[in-house]
What does this fold into?
Amino acid sequence: MIRLLLWLLGGMLLGGVVHLGTILILPSMATNDAYSRLAPLAPVNKVVPLPPPAPDRAAMPFMDPAFAIAVCRYDLSAAPLKFSVPISQAYTSVSFYTRSDIAYYAINDRAAGRRVIELDLMTAEQHSDVPDNEEVTAADRLIVESPGRTGLIVIKALAPEPGLLAAAQSTLAAAKCQPQPQ
It folds into this structure.
């Protein structure tokens, strides 16, 4: 009887280890991640609006039809990125993701405190090369360090009513995601 219980306990323990290992390793092995799915739609270092979601198709999973959404696939290999987006009437948010879909920074219009969300996106190496300027304070220049050279920026503007979706889309059309001049 005890031998049977030990076999059952060993089997459950082995099954738990295999299950946990599979869950932890599966995201890194996925080939159809958000960055890859958006590659045909969005060129690198350019803001592109995503089409509104429909029941049978959506560019990304769990898209909310009350939001106008735009994306920027970025590559910091050549130079840091200058990003700006005007805030919409209701709500605007910007989220930054690594190439492997891990969120590392987010900001919204209320946190920005201005009419435009502006920031510089760069790697840690590029940030260390930026000269210190005593006249430019941290409040004047928001610098976000990317953990990798490539990633994804997702910009969302809320349309509280269906008639305001065009205004939210026009706000996102004014967004810029371009390399900084050297």
